[in-house]
Amino acid sequence: MPDTLPELSPTEQRRFGRHLVMPEFGQAAQRRLKAGSVLLVGCGGLGSPTALYLAAAGVGRIGLVDPDRVEETNLQRQIAHGHATLGRPKTESAAARMRDLNPDVVIERHDVYLTEENALDLVGAYDVVIDGTDNFPTRYLVNDACVRLGRPNVFGGVLRFDGQLSVFDARSGPCYRCLFPAPPPVELAPNCAEAGVLGVLPGVIGTLQATEAIKLLTGIGTPMIGRMLIYDGLTLGFDSIALAKDPACPCCSLPRDAIVLRTERMVCAALPPGGSMTPAELEARLTAGEAFSLCDVRNPPEWSGGVIPGAHLLPKPELEALLQAGAPPPDPFAGHATVVVYCQAGLRSAAVIRALVEAGHDPARLVNLEGGFGAWRGPRAAAAPLAATG
Ligand SMILES: [Zn+2]
């Protein structure tokens, strides 16, 4: 942050009057917000309220990271977007709403996935990072880049009716890896597309993330460093637990220069026993005339974005219910052909294969599509929907 804080224009003096009138906030905090910058990773359920409130509050520069386009199924919770922007990049859609709230905010659009190649450049260009993703590989990249560069990471997580929030700042508290050194097995890590989420829940947690970012930029209050807020939407209970720094943490116990970013791979507790195939290999073998049964285990809203031609649609929860009930193997698992099972990113399908094998199916007939439908569609569409934006 620059030593000399920028002055507020007469327009800003009027716009931020409700801030300026509070003695704990006042001109100094507002000018710190104007000088400050925030990187929002994800413009979905968590990123929507965060983006709008930070723009409205007068944060000077906001970076938006999201490669996805707005889809109808997003609008149940991703309120920065709307029908008018269906099919448009989420960063463009969110930026338009943010500029309408505050034309002076500088918005930097990054229509990309956060990767091990770009994470340090992106994170390093901002004062505070807000983690608004719900996929573990991105969460670990955000964490590791923030620890390495000494940036606070405002964490939010949502699933079904439950929310979590913390501020990870390894300079004075634990990091995300102190709590969770590595991603959980796929079976224990359902995402919102699979398990669902109450639409207003990311609104609650995202708004709290915006609050923490404002506190960090202005220096007011006490940020949630070393504590985690646990929110239960069904009882409306807020609890907070203390978090300890792990002296053996695989990330923040290292000298910062020794932290190397790498993309975590999500795996099953036991690797799926069947084989796997890349989308390029599948395409080549289909073109060469090989016969496969294709089974799409995603949920109906995900099918609307497209399927692999010829696929049988059988959502994972339905399939699991059939297996639990001991029902006979559903088509396409009844025949003799090799079945290529796919979901959006190749994680749920791996769990499905494992469940099928446990139920007695022949692992030699089951093949997981690596990277799922997102990788299949890949460069053909910029809108690979898994970016997991809550
Ligand atoms: Zn740590």
UniProtKB/TrEMBL annotation:
Segment forming the signal sequence: none
* A Pfam family this chain is assigned to: ThiF
A GO molecular function term, named singly, is:
ATP binding
| Domain Rhodanese stretches | 288-382
SMART domains attached here? RHOD
**Which InterPro entries does this UniProt record tie to the protein?**
Rhodanese-like_dom (IPR001763), Rhodanese-like_dom_sf (IPR036873), ThiF/MoeB/HesA (IPR045886), ThiF_NAD_FAD-bd (IPR000594), Ubiquitin-activating_enz (IPR035985)
SUPFAM superfamilies linked = Activating enzymes of the ubiquitin-like proteins, Rhodanese/Cell cycle control phosphatase
The protein's enzyme class: transferase
Q: From the UniProt record, list the coiled-coil ranges.
A: none
Record carries keyword Nucleotide-binding: yes
* Keyword hit for Nucleotide-binding: yes
The record's EC number reads 2.7.7.80
GO cellular component terms, semicolon-separated: cytosol
Keywords (A to Z) from UniProt: ATP-binding, Nucleotide-binding, Transferase
Q: Which reaction does it catalyse?
A: [molybdopterin-synthase sulfur-carrier protein]-C-terminal Gly-Gly + ATP + H(+) = [molybdopterin-synthase sulfur-carrier protein]-C-terminal Gly-Gly-AMP + diphosphate
Q: How does it assemble?
A: Homodimer. Forms a stable heterotetrameric complex of 2 MoeB and 2 MoaD during adenylation of MoaD.
What exactly does this protein do? Catalyzes the adenylation by ATP of the carboxyl group of the C-terminal glycine of sulfur carrier protein MoaD.
Sorted alphabetically, which NCBIfam families does this protein's record hold? PRK05690.1
State the family named in the UniProt similarity comment for this chain.
Answer: Belongs to the HesA/MoeB/ThiF family.
Q: What is this protein called?
A: Molybdopterin-synthase adenylyltransferase
Species annotation? Teichococcus deserti
Give the organism's phylogenetic lineage: Bacteria, Pseudomonadati, Pseudomonadota, Alphaproteobacteria, Acetobacterales
